[in-house]
TrEMBL record:
Signal peptide: none annotated. Transmembrane segments: none annotated. Pfam families: AraC_N, HTH_18. The keyword Transcription applies. GO terms for molecular function: DNA-binding transcription factor activity; sequence-specific DNA binding. Keywords: Transcription, Transcription regulation. The keyword Signal does not apply. SMART domains: HTH_ARAC. This is Putative transcriptional regulator YqhC. Residues 194-272 form the HTH araC/xylS-type domain.
Length: 323
């Protein structure tokens, strides 16, 4: 069977399994099926670390001036949480179908211990937290077996983690394996920036500034700015702004927030209206400009809840991991 036929078969299998997504996640943690039959406009999303394989349809991501595509030929590897914009290309004839795997750091560390000092494993550590690489036949074959065992509870429980380990191994040994290596390495620029990103995630509502974040990474401001941009493809302030705007949008989408865009901006760390600075004004305009998209997403969510929007799971991004 050729590669195209295998991808079509995997897309059909995901379509078959998608209604049991919750049961599957209980059988095998860290897996999420992706399926949709309608295109999605360029929309802000928040991606957590993980690996995304698509077998049909494609997505295009935008972060600053960087543009990246992932599809049946290229998978996406994220090793840091990143807010950016994403566009979905899907139709009933060519649906978006794929699978997302969380990166289990403990499993990755165990895998690296087993590899040890093997001379065939010589990877330079990657600086960027967002990478794409060719979807190899080895990975495709392993994912096919993973989807097969998902249908059988005992097989999923006993064999699933081993197949995920195999997939992780092939990614690690592939052209972007250095990104996974950087994820578990300590006291590197990547690990220090990752620590700062976790601080932003916990304290984004507070009055953070670049000097504080640079001190957290034990770097000068100029070195911090350089290394931060190497990992995230954006500046520290732009990342913080994007993260806050994403959180505000999610409040308005998921929580049914009736307050204004200004109120949402204040809840995620911008100043109140009487003392609003330029960045807060820009945040307010950005949120206000997103209201049409947010309202459309709310309507899509209502249609989903009424059973009128089956097969468009990507329409309302869930909390936490998104793809």
């Amino acid at each position: 069977m050729n590669r195209e036929a295998i991808c079509l078969q995997l897309a059909d299998k995901i379509n078959h399994l998608k209604n049991n997504d919750k049961i599957i996640s209980e059988r095998l943690a860290g897996i999420r099926l992706l399926y949709g039959v309608e295109p999605g406009p360029r929309t802000p999303v928040m991606y957590q670390p993980g690996i995304i394989f698509l077998f049909s349809g494609h997505k295009i991501g935008y972060i600053n001036k960087r543009k990246f595509r992932y599809d049946a030929n290229e998978y996406l590897l994220l090793t840091v949480p990143l807010p950016f914009e994403c566009e979905t290309w899907a139709t009933p004839e060519v649906p978006l179908a794929g699978i997302r795997l969380d990166i289990d750091v403990l499993q990755l560390q165990e895998l690296l211990m087993d590899i040890g000092e093997d001379e065939r494993f010589q990877l330079p550590m990657a600086a960027s937290g967002i990478n794409s690489a060719t979807l190899s036949d080895e990975i495709l074959c392993a994912v096919e077996r993973l989807l097969d065992v998902m249908e059988r509870p005992l097989d999923a429980r006993i064999l699933g983690k081993q197949i995920i380990r195999e997939i992780l191994y092939h990614v690690l040994m592939g052209p972007r394996g250095g990104a996974l290596l950087a994820l578990v390495s300590r006291q590197t620029h990547f690990s220090l920036i990752s620590r700062v990103l976790k601080q932003i995630e916990m304290k984004y509502t507070e009055n953070l500034n670049v000097e504080q974040l640079a001190a957290e990474a034990n770097m000068s401001v100029s070195a911090f700015h350089h290394n931060f941009k190497a990992v995230t493809s954006t500046s520290p302030l732009q990342y913080l702004k994007s993260y806050r705007l994403h959180k505000a949008r999610m409040m308005m989408i998921h929580d049914g927030m009736k307050a204004s865009a200004a109120a949402a901006a204040m809840r995620v760390g911008y100043e109140s209206a009487p003392r609003r600075c330029g960045s807060a004004m820009r945040a307010h305009r950005s949120l206000a400009g997103s209201l049409n998209v947010i309202l459309a997403l709310r309507r899509a969510k209502m249609r989903q809840e009424c059973g009128q929007c089956k097969g468009a799971k990507w329409g309302i991004p869930p909390r936490g991991n998104e793809a």
